[in-house]
Amino acid sequence: MPKKIGMVSLGCPKNLVDSEVMLGILAHQGYELTPRPDQADVIIVNTCAFIEPAKQESINTILEMADYKKFGNAKRLVVAGCLVERYRKEIQEQIPEVDYVIGTNELERVLEACTDTFQPEISGAPAEPYLYHEFTPRILSTPGHSAYLKIAEGCDHPCAFCVIPQMRGAFRSRRFASVIREAENLAQQGVRELTIVGQDTTSYGEDLGLRDGLPSLLRELGKIQDLVWVRFLYCYPNRVTDALIAAVAETPKVAKYFDIPLQHASGNVLKLMKRGSNGTHFLRMLEKIRSAIPGVALRTSFIVGYPGETDEDFKELLDFVAVAEFDHMGVFLYSNEESSKSFELPNQVKGSVARRRQKQLMALQRKVSRRNLKRMVGKSLPVLVEGPSEETDLLYQGRSERQAPGIDGCILINDFEGPEPKRGEFRWATVTEVGDYDLVARLEQEVFADRPSRSNPLPVVGALVQIQAAAVPSA
Protein backbone atom coordinates (compact mmCIF):
# COMPACT_ATOMS: atom_id res chain seq x y z
CA MET A 1 0.00 0.00 0.00
CA PRO A 2 1.48 3.36 -0.98
CA LYS A 3 1.92 5.39 2.17
CA LYS A 4 1.91 8.96 0.90
CA ILE A 5 -0.76 10.71 -1.19
CA GLY A 6 -0.43 14.14 -2.79
CA MET A 7 -3.33 16.03 -4.35
CA VAL A 8 -3.88 19.09 -6.51
CA SER A 9 -7.46 20.40 -6.51
CA LEU A 10 -8.49 22.67 -9.38
CA GLY A 11 -11.61 24.71 -10.03
CA CYS A 12 -14.56 25.67 -7.88
CA PRO A 13 -15.45 25.05 -4.21
CA LYS A 14 -17.81 22.27 -5.31
CA ASN A 15 -14.85 20.44 -6.78
CA LEU A 16 -12.84 21.16 -3.65
CA VAL A 17 -15.44 19.34 -1.55
CA ASP A 18 -14.98 16.32 -3.83
CA SER A 19 -11.23 16.53 -3.19
CA GLU A 20 -11.83 16.65 0.56
CA VAL A 21 -14.06 13.60 0.35
CA MET A 22 -11.42 11.62 -1.55
CA LEU A 23 -8.77 12.67 0.97
CA GLY A 24 -11.06 11.65 3.81
CA ILE A 25 -11.65 8.22 2.31
CA LEU A 26 -7.91 7.68 1.92
CA ALA A 27 -6.97 8.99 5.36
CA HIS A 28 -9.68 6.80 6.91
CA GLN A 29 -7.87 3.79 5.45
CA GLY A 30 -4.51 4.82 6.86
CA TYR A 31 -2.91 6.67 3.97
CA GLU A 32 -0.60 9.59 4.80
CA LEU A 33 -1.18 12.93 3.08
CA THR A 34 1.70 15.10 1.97
CA PRO A 35 1.98 18.62 0.55
CA ARG A 36 5.19 17.61 -1.25
CA PRO A 37 4.51 16.09 -4.69
CA ASP A 38 8.15 14.99 -4.88
CA GLN A 39 7.56 12.80 -1.81
CA ALA A 40 4.18 11.37 -2.79
CA ASP A 41 3.80 7.75 -3.88
CA VAL A 42 0.50 8.58 -5.57
CA ILE A 43 -0.46 11.98 -6.98
CA ILE A 44 -4.12 12.83 -7.63
CA VAL A 45 -5.18 15.77 -9.81
CA ASN A 46 -8.85 16.70 -9.38
CA THR A 47 -9.61 18.62 -12.56
CA CYS A 48 -11.93 21.34 -13.84
CA ALA A 49 -13.20 21.42 -17.43
CA PHE A 50 -15.97 24.04 -17.48
CA ILE A 51 -14.35 26.37 -20.02
CA GLU A 52 -11.26 26.30 -22.24
CA PRO A 53 -8.83 28.04 -19.81
CA ALA A 54 -9.85 25.60 -17.06
CA LYS A 55 -9.31 22.62 -19.37
CA GLN A 56 -5.88 23.89 -20.36
CA GLU A 57 -4.91 24.48 -16.72
CA SER A 58 -6.00 20.93 -15.89
CA ILE A 59 -3.96 19.43 -18.72
CA ASN A 60 -0.88 21.50 -17.83
CA THR A 61 -1.16 20.42 -14.19
CA ILE A 62 -1.48 16.75 -15.15
CA LEU A 63 1.67 16.98 -17.26
CA GLU A 64 3.49 18.86 -14.50
CA MET A 65 2.59 16.20 -11.94
CA ALA A 66 3.55 13.45 -14.39
CA ASP A 67 7.15 14.64 -14.16
CA TYR A 68 7.24 13.42 -10.55
CA LYS A 69 6.97 9.87 -11.86
CA LYS A 70 10.33 10.51 -13.53
CA PHE A 71 12.09 12.69 -10.99
CA GLY A 72 10.26 12.07 -7.70
CA ASN A 73 8.91 9.15 -5.73
CA ALA A 74 5.56 8.98 -7.52
CA LYS A 75 4.67 5.57 -8.85
CA ARG A 76 1.13 6.43 -9.90
CA LEU A 77 -0.78 9.39 -11.33
CA VAL A 78 -4.54 9.55 -10.89
CA VAL A 79 -6.76 12.07 -12.69
CA ALA A 80 -10.22 12.82 -11.29
CA GLY A 81 -13.09 15.23 -11.81
CA CYS A 82 -14.77 17.04 -14.65
CA LEU A 83 -12.05 16.61 -17.26
CA VAL A 84 -12.51 12.87 -16.92
CA GLU A 85 -16.26 13.18 -17.51
CA ARG A 86 -15.68 15.07 -20.76
CA TYR A 87 -12.51 13.42 -22.07
CA ARG A 88 -12.07 10.08 -20.33
CA LYS A 89 -11.06 8.19 -23.48
CA GLU A 90 -8.77 10.96 -24.73
CA ILE A 91 -6.94 11.10 -21.37
CA GLN A 92 -6.43 7.34 -21.38
CA GLU A 93 -5.20 7.27 -24.97
CA GLN A 94 -3.20 10.50 -25.21
CA ILE A 95 -1.60 10.89 -21.76
CA PRO A 96 0.05 7.53 -21.05
CA GLU A 97 1.52 8.82 -17.79
CA VAL A 98 -2.00 8.71 -16.29
CA ASP A 99 -2.60 5.37 -14.57
CA TYR A 100 -6.17 5.77 -13.44
CA VAL A 101 -9.15 8.07 -14.01
CA ILE A 102 -12.03 8.83 -11.61
CA GLY A 103 -15.22 10.55 -12.74
CA THR A 104 -17.36 12.86 -10.64
CA ASN A 105 -19.65 9.97 -9.67
CA GLU A 106 -16.79 7.63 -8.79
CA LEU A 107 -15.14 9.31 -5.80
CA GLU A 108 -15.08 6.14 -3.72
CA ARG A 109 -12.96 4.46 -6.38
CA VAL A 110 -10.03 6.54 -5.15
CA LEU A 111 -9.20 3.62 -2.83
CA GLU A 112 -9.04 1.24 -5.76
CA ALA A 113 -6.81 3.70 -7.61
CA CYS A 114 -4.33 3.83 -4.73
CA THR A 115 -3.99 0.15 -3.79
CA ASP A 116 -0.87 -1.85 -4.57
CA THR A 117 -2.93 -4.37 -6.52
CA PHE A 118 -4.67 -1.85 -8.76
CA GLN A 119 -5.07 -2.55 -12.45
CA PRO A 120 -4.64 0.35 -14.90
CA GLU A 121 -8.07 1.25 -16.21
CA ILE A 122 -8.69 0.96 -19.92
CA SER A 123 -12.39 1.80 -19.99
CA GLY A 124 -15.23 2.24 -17.57
CA ALA A 125 -18.99 1.93 -17.56
CA PRO A 126 -21.02 5.00 -16.51
CA ALA A 127 -21.29 5.20 -12.73
CA GLU A 128 -24.48 5.68 -10.74
CA PRO A 129 -25.16 9.29 -9.61
CA TYR A 130 -23.15 9.95 -6.46
CA LEU A 131 -23.84 12.08 -3.39
CA TYR A 132 -21.69 12.06 -0.30
CA HIS A 133 -23.43 12.13 3.12
CA GLU A 134 -22.74 13.10 6.71
CA PHE A 135 -20.96 9.83 7.47
CA THR A 136 -18.61 10.04 4.47
CA PRO A 137 -15.04 10.66 5.69
CA ARG A 138 -13.86 14.12 4.77
CA ILE A 139 -10.74 16.17 5.51
CA LEU A 140 -10.91 19.95 5.26
CA SER A 141 -8.39 21.73 3.07
CA THR A 142 -9.76 25.12 4.14
CA PRO A 143 -8.75 26.79 7.43
CA GLY A 144 -10.38 25.03 10.37
CA HIS A 145 -12.74 27.91 11.11
CA SER A 146 -14.29 27.94 7.61
CA ALA A 147 -15.70 25.15 5.44
CA TYR A 148 -17.82 24.47 2.37
CA LEU A 149 -20.87 22.23 2.55
CA LYS A 150 -22.25 20.80 -0.69
CA ILE A 151 -26.03 20.33 -0.52
CA ALA A 152 -26.75 19.14 -4.06
CA GLU A 153 -25.14 17.88 -7.21
CA GLY A 154 -25.86 18.32 -10.92
CA CYS A 155 -28.13 20.76 -12.74
CA ASP A 156 -31.37 20.67 -14.74
CA HIS A 157 -31.23 24.17 -16.25
CA PRO A 158 -30.94 24.30 -20.08
CA CYS A 159 -28.35 27.11 -20.39
CA ALA A 160 -26.96 26.88 -23.91
CA PHE A 161 -23.38 27.79 -22.99
CA CYS A 162 -23.02 25.36 -20.09
CA VAL A 163 -21.73 21.78 -20.07
CA ILE A 164 -22.17 21.14 -16.34
CA PRO A 165 -25.16 18.77 -16.79
CA GLN A 166 -22.97 16.64 -19.06
CA MET A 167 -20.27 16.41 -16.38
CA ARG A 168 -22.34 16.38 -13.19
CA GLY A 169 -25.65 14.88 -14.29
CA ALA A 170 -29.21 15.73 -13.34
CA PHE A 171 -29.93 17.82 -10.26
CA ARG A 172 -30.18 15.85 -7.03
CA SER A 173 -30.39 17.08 -3.45
CA ARG A 174 -28.88 15.64 -0.31
CA ARG A 175 -31.37 14.69 2.38
CA PHE A 176 -32.31 17.57 4.66
CA ALA A 177 -31.33 15.74 7.85
CA SER A 178 -27.99 14.69 6.35
CA VAL A 179 -27.06 18.30 5.59
CA ILE A 180 -28.02 19.47 9.07
CA ARG A 181 -26.08 16.67 10.76
CA GLU A 182 -22.95 17.42 8.76
CA ALA A 183 -23.25 21.12 9.57
CA GLU A 184 -23.62 20.29 13.27
CA ASN A 185 -20.57 18.02 13.12
CA LEU A 186 -18.51 20.72 11.43
CA ALA A 187 -19.58 23.32 13.99
CA GLN A 188 -18.75 21.01 16.89
CA GLN A 189 -15.29 20.53 15.46
CA GLY A 190 -14.43 24.20 15.11
CA VAL A 191 -16.03 25.53 11.93
CA ARG A 192 -17.58 28.96 12.47
CA GLU A 193 -18.24 30.05 8.87
CA LEU A 194 -20.19 27.65 6.67
CA THR A 195 -20.53 28.28 2.94
CA ILE A 196 -23.30 26.33 1.20
CA VAL A 197 -22.54 25.33 -2.39
CA GLY A 198 -24.15 23.42 -5.25
CA GLN A 199 -24.59 24.01 -8.97
CA ASP A 200 -27.88 25.73 -8.08
CA THR A 201 -28.52 25.99 -4.36
CA THR A 202 -31.87 27.68 -4.95
CA SER A 203 -33.29 24.45 -6.41
CA TYR A 204 -32.43 22.53 -3.24
CA GLY A 205 -35.10 20.06 -2.17
CA GLU A 206 -37.36 20.32 -5.22
CA ASP A 207 -36.48 16.78 -6.29
CA LEU A 208 -37.31 15.59 -2.77
CA GLY A 209 -40.72 17.25 -2.76
CA LEU A 210 -39.63 19.95 -0.30
CA ARG A 211 -41.36 23.30 -0.50
CA ASP A 212 -39.00 26.24 0.03
CA GLY A 213 -36.12 23.84 0.59
CA LEU A 214 -33.26 26.35 0.74
CA PRO A 215 -35.13 28.88 2.92
CA SER A 216 -36.04 26.08 5.35
CA LEU A 217 -32.48 24.81 5.36
CA LEU A 218 -31.03 28.26 6.06
CA ARG A 219 -33.40 28.81 8.97
CA GLU A 220 -32.44 25.45 10.45
CA LEU A 221 -28.72 26.03 9.98
CA GLY A 222 -29.16 29.39 11.69
CA LYS A 223 -30.12 27.51 14.87
CA ILE A 224 -26.76 25.75 15.18
CA GLN A 225 -25.21 27.35 18.21
CA ASP A 226 -21.51 27.32 17.34
CA LEU A 227 -21.88 28.71 13.82
CA VAL A 228 -21.37 32.46 13.40
CA TRP A 229 -21.92 32.93 9.66
CA VAL A 230 -23.83 30.83 7.14
CA ARG A 231 -23.72 31.89 3.51
CA PHE A 232 -24.91 30.29 0.28
CA LEU A 233 -23.64 30.72 -3.27
CA TYR A 234 -24.98 30.45 -6.81
CA CYS A 235 -28.63 31.58 -6.92
CA TYR A 236 -30.45 30.99 -10.19
CA PRO A 237 -32.21 34.34 -10.86
CA ASN A 238 -35.76 33.05 -11.27
CA ARG A 239 -35.44 31.00 -8.06
CA VAL A 240 -34.87 34.00 -5.78
CA THR A 241 -38.24 33.82 -4.04
CA ASP A 242 -39.90 35.92 -1.39
CA ALA A 243 -39.43 33.00 1.00
CA LEU A 244 -35.67 32.97 0.37
CA ILE A 245 -35.35 36.72 0.84
CA ALA A 246 -37.33 36.49 4.08
CA ALA A 247 -35.15 33.64 5.37
CA VAL A 248 -31.99 35.69 4.82
CA ALA A 249 -33.56 38.79 6.35
CA GLU A 250 -34.91 37.00 9.42
CA THR A 251 -32.06 34.60 10.25
CA PRO A 252 -29.27 36.51 12.05
CA LYS A 253 -26.52 34.00 11.32
CA VAL A 254 -27.18 33.95 7.57
CA ALA A 255 -24.86 36.40 5.85
CA LYS A 256 -26.68 39.28 4.19
CA TYR A 257 -25.19 38.31 0.86
CA PHE A 258 -26.61 37.10 -2.45
CA ASP A 259 -24.54 35.61 -5.28
CA ILE A 260 -26.81 35.67 -8.36
CA PRO A 261 -25.02 34.91 -11.66
CA LEU A 262 -27.15 36.86 -14.16
CA GLN A 263 -24.83 36.21 -17.15
CA HIS A 264 -26.27 39.18 -19.12
CA ALA A 265 -28.91 41.92 -19.01
CA SER A 266 -29.97 42.02 -22.66
CA GLY A 267 -33.19 40.12 -23.28
CA ASN A 268 -31.88 39.18 -26.71
CA VAL A 269 -28.69 37.58 -25.38
CA LEU A 270 -30.47 35.91 -22.45
CA LYS A 271 -32.89 34.34 -24.91
CA LEU A 272 -29.99 32.99 -26.96
CA MET A 273 -28.51 31.63 -23.73
CA LYS A 274 -31.78 29.78 -23.02
CA ARG A 275 -32.12 31.66 -19.73
CA GLY A 276 -34.79 34.24 -20.45
CA SER A 277 -35.68 37.38 -18.45
CA ASN A 278 -34.14 40.85 -18.92
CA GLY A 279 -32.45 43.71 -17.13
CA THR A 280 -35.69 45.40 -16.11
CA HIS A 281 -36.88 42.28 -14.33
CA PHE A 282 -33.47 41.88 -12.69
CA LEU A 283 -33.57 45.44 -11.35
CA ARG A 284 -36.95 44.80 -9.76
CA MET A 285 -35.54 41.67 -8.10
CA LEU A 286 -32.50 43.53 -6.77
CA GLU A 287 -34.69 46.32 -5.42
CA LYS A 288 -36.88 43.79 -3.63
CA ILE A 289 -33.81 42.23 -1.99
CA ARG A 290 -32.36 45.60 -0.95
CA SER A 291 -35.69 46.80 0.44
CA ALA A 292 -36.06 43.69 2.58
CA ILE A 293 -32.42 43.51 3.69
CA PRO A 294 -30.81 46.93 4.20
CA GLY A 295 -27.06 46.77 3.64
CA VAL A 296 -27.18 43.49 1.73
CA ALA A 297 -24.16 42.67 -0.46
CA LEU A 298 -24.92 41.61 -4.04
CA ARG A 299 -22.59 39.66 -6.29
CA THR A 300 -23.08 38.60 -9.91
CA SER A 301 -21.19 37.40 -12.97
CA PHE A 302 -21.58 38.11 -16.68
CA ILE A 303 -20.44 36.55 -19.93
CA VAL A 304 -19.35 38.86 -22.76
CA GLY A 305 -18.73 37.89 -26.36
CA TYR A 306 -21.63 35.44 -26.51
CA PRO A 307 -22.61 34.54 -30.11
CA GLY A 308 -25.06 37.15 -31.35
CA GLU A 309 -24.14 39.78 -28.73
CA THR A 310 -24.35 43.09 -30.61
CA ASP A 311 -22.97 46.49 -29.68
CA GLU A 312 -26.51 47.42 -28.63
CA ASP A 313 -26.74 44.35 -26.38
CA PHE A 314 -23.46 45.23 -24.74
CA LYS A 315 -24.51 48.85 -24.27
CA GLU A 316 -27.63 47.54 -22.53
CA LEU A 317 -25.41 45.50 -20.22
CA LEU A 318 -23.21 48.52 -19.46
CA ASP A 319 -26.23 50.67 -18.62
CA PHE A 320 -27.61 47.91 -16.41
CA VAL A 321 -24.38 47.54 -14.42
CA ALA A 322 -24.18 51.31 -13.91
CA VAL A 323 -27.68 51.35 -12.41
CA ALA A 324 -27.57 48.03 -10.52
CA GLU A 325 -24.41 48.97 -8.53
CA PHE A 326 -23.30 45.47 -7.58
CA ASP A 327 -20.90 45.13 -4.68
CA HIS A 328 -18.98 42.33 -6.39
CA MET A 329 -18.89 41.28 -10.03
CA GLY A 330 -17.01 38.91 -12.31
CA VAL A 331 -16.87 39.21 -16.11
CA PHE A 332 -15.90 36.19 -18.20
CA LEU A 333 -15.18 35.74 -21.88
CA TYR A 334 -17.50 33.36 -23.70
CA SER A 335 -15.89 29.96 -24.16
CA ASN A 336 -17.17 28.08 -27.19
CA GLU A 337 -17.37 24.53 -25.83
CA GLU A 338 -17.82 21.89 -28.52
CA SER A 339 -20.47 19.92 -26.62
CA SER A 340 -22.55 22.95 -25.61
CA LYS A 341 -25.80 23.93 -27.35
CA SER A 342 -24.28 27.30 -28.24
CA PHE A 343 -21.29 25.81 -30.07
CA GLU A 344 -22.71 26.21 -33.57
CA LEU A 345 -24.61 29.46 -33.06
CA PRO A 346 -24.11 32.01 -35.85
CA ASN A 347 -22.69 35.51 -35.40
CA GLN A 348 -19.67 34.52 -33.33
CA VAL A 349 -18.04 37.52 -31.65
CA LYS A 350 -14.34 38.14 -32.35
CA GLY A 351 -12.04 37.50 -29.42
CA SER A 352 -10.61 41.02 -29.62
CA VAL A 353 -14.11 42.48 -29.34
CA ALA A 354 -14.99 40.27 -26.38
CA ARG A 355 -11.79 41.20 -24.55
CA ARG A 356 -12.43 44.90 -25.14
CA ARG A 357 -15.95 44.53 -23.74
CA GLN A 358 -14.61 42.67 -20.73
CA LYS A 359 -12.13 45.46 -19.95
CA GLN A 360 -14.77 48.13 -20.43
CA LEU A 361 -17.25 46.42 -18.14
CA MET A 362 -14.68 45.81 -15.41
CA ALA A 363 -13.48 49.43 -15.63
CA LEU A 364 -17.05 50.52 -14.97
CA GLN A 365 -17.42 48.07 -12.09
CA ARG A 366 -14.15 49.28 -10.55
CA LYS A 367 -15.64 52.78 -10.26
CA VAL A 368 -18.91 51.41 -8.89
CA SER A 369 -17.08 49.27 -6.33
CA ARG A 370 -14.88 52.09 -5.06
CA ARG A 371 -17.90 54.39 -4.78
CA ASN A 372 -19.79 51.76 -2.79
CA LEU A 373 -16.83 51.06 -0.52
CA LYS A 374 -16.31 54.75 0.27
CA ARG A 375 -19.67 54.68 2.03
CA MET A 376 -18.17 52.21 4.50
CA VAL A 377 -15.47 54.58 5.80
CA GLY A 378 -15.98 55.27 9.51
CA LYS A 379 -18.37 52.35 9.98
CA SER A 380 -17.75 49.43 12.33
CA LEU A 381 -18.45 45.89 11.24
CA PRO A 382 -17.67 42.33 12.36
CA VAL A 383 -14.55 40.85 10.76
CA LEU A 384 -13.34 37.27 10.54
CA VAL A 385 -9.55 37.39 10.99
CA GLU A 386 -7.79 35.13 8.47
CA GLY A 387 -4.18 35.74 9.55
CA PRO A 388 -1.25 37.63 8.03
CA SER A 389 -1.96 39.35 4.73
CA GLU A 390 -1.17 37.50 1.52
CA GLU A 391 0.53 40.70 0.32
CA THR A 392 2.82 41.49 3.26
CA ASP A 393 3.55 40.24 6.77
CA LEU A 394 3.17 43.84 7.99
CA LEU A 395 -0.64 43.59 7.69
CA TYR A 396 -3.33 41.19 8.78
CA GLN A 397 -6.19 40.12 6.56
CA GLY A 398 -9.84 39.38 7.20
CA ARG A 399 -13.32 39.42 5.70
CA SER A 400 -16.73 40.76 6.58
CA GLU A 401 -19.95 38.86 5.98
CA ARG A 402 -20.17 40.92 2.76
CA GLN A 403 -17.16 39.07 1.33
CA ALA A 404 -17.23 35.39 0.41
CA PRO A 405 -14.01 33.37 0.78
CA GLY A 406 -11.81 33.14 -2.27
CA ILE A 407 -13.88 35.26 -4.67
CA ASP A 408 -14.41 38.75 -3.21
CA GLY A 409 -12.12 41.42 -1.84
CA CYS A 410 -10.80 41.44 1.70
CA ILE A 411 -10.25 43.70 4.70
CA LEU A 412 -6.63 44.67 5.34
CA ILE A 413 -5.94 45.31 9.02
CA ASN A 414 -3.16 47.86 9.52
CA ASP A 415 -3.83 48.65 13.19
CA PHE A 416 -5.44 46.89 16.13
CA GLU A 417 -6.44 47.45 19.72
CA GLY A 418 -5.91 44.89 22.47
CA PRO A 419 -4.46 41.44 21.81
CA GLU A 420 -2.78 40.49 18.56
CA PRO A 421 -5.31 39.20 16.01
CA LYS A 422 -5.71 35.42 15.89
CA ARG A 423 -6.69 33.40 12.86
CA GLY A 424 -10.35 32.39 13.02
CA GLU A 425 -11.54 34.94 15.59
CA PHE A 426 -14.39 37.40 15.02
CA ARG A 427 -13.77 40.99 16.12
CA TRP A 428 -15.22 44.38 15.38
CA ALA A 429 -13.29 46.67 13.04
CA THR A 430 -13.63 50.29 11.94
CA VAL A 431 -13.08 51.02 8.25
CA THR A 432 -10.47 53.74 7.69
CA GLU A 433 -9.60 53.58 3.96
CA VAL A 434 -10.78 51.90 0.76
CA GLY A 435 -9.28 50.62 -2.48
CA ASP A 436 -11.02 49.51 -5.64
CA TYR A 437 -12.16 46.23 -4.11
CA ASP A 438 -10.60 46.01 -0.63
CA LEU A 439 -11.12 47.83 2.66
CA VAL A 440 -8.53 48.96 5.21
CA ALA A 441 -9.61 48.85 8.84
CA ARG A 442 -8.50 49.17 12.45
CA LEU A 443 -9.34 46.09 14.50
CA GLU A 444 -11.09 46.83 17.78
CA GLN A 445 -10.57 44.92 20.99
CA GLU A 446 -14.20 43.85 21.25
CA VAL A 447 -14.91 40.28 20.17
CA PHE A 448 -17.94 39.87 17.91
CA ALA A 449 -18.98 36.46 19.19
CA ASP A 450 -17.84 34.11 21.91
CA ARG A 451 -16.17 31.08 20.41
CA PRO A 452 -16.41 27.86 22.43
CA SER A 453 -13.18 25.97 22.95
CA ARG A 454 -12.40 23.45 20.27
CA SER A 455 -12.22 19.77 21.07
CA ASN A 456 -11.48 16.86 18.74
CA PRO A 457 -11.11 19.15 15.74
CA LEU A 458 -11.81 17.83 12.28
CA PRO A 459 -8.56 17.00 10.47
CA VAL A 460 -7.49 19.94 8.33
CA VAL A 461 -4.97 19.43 5.56
CA GLY A 462 -4.61 23.05 4.47
CA ALA A 463 -1.27 23.17 2.68
CA LEU A 464 -1.35 19.41 2.18
CA VAL A 465 -3.59 20.06 -0.80
CA GLN A 466 -2.53 22.36 -3.60
CA ILE A 467 -5.71 24.35 -4.17
CA GLN A 468 -5.77 26.11 -7.51
CA ALA A 469 -9.06 27.91 -8.02
CA ALA A 470 -9.64 28.35 -11.72
CA ALA A 471 -11.35 31.56 -12.78
CA VAL A 472 -14.58 30.13 -14.14
CA PRO A 473 -18.05 31.66 -14.23
CA SER A 474 -20.80 30.25 -12.04
CA ALA A 475 -23.71 28.51 -13.71
What is the compact description of this entry?
Helix content is 31%, strand content 21%. The chain has 475 residues and is an alpha/beta fold. The chain folds into 3 domains: 4-130 and 460-468, Rossmann fold (3-Layer(aba) Sandwich); 146-374, pyruvate-formate lyase- activating enzyme; 380-447, OB fold (Dihydrolipoamide Acetyltransferase, E2P) (Beta Barrel), CATH 2.40.50.
Structure description:
The chain is of the alpha/beta class. The protein has three domains: about 5-130 and about 460-470, Methylthiotransferase, N-terminal domain (Rossmann fold); about 145-375, pyruvate-formate lyase- activating enzyme (Alpha-Beta Horseshoe); about 380-445, Beta Barrel (OB fold (Dihydrolipoamide Acetyltransferase, E2P)), CATH 2.40.50. Helices cover about 30% and strands about 20% of the residues. The chain is built from 13 helices and 19 strands. The protein has helices at about 15-30, 50-65, 70, 80-95, 110-115, 165-170, 175-190, 215-220, 240-250, 265-270, 280-290, 310-325, 350-375, and strands spanning about 5-10, 30-35, 40-45, 75-80, 100, 145-150, 150-155, 170-175, 195, 230, 255-260, 295-305, 330-335, 380-390, 395-400, 410-415, 425-435, 440-445, 465-470. Strands 1, 2, 3, 4, 5 and 19 form a six-stranded parallel beta sheet that branches. The protein has a five-stranded mixed beta barrel with strand order 14-15-16-18-17. A hairpin with a 4-residue loop joins strand 17 and strand 18 (about 440-445). Mean pLDDT is about 90; it is low at about 450-460.
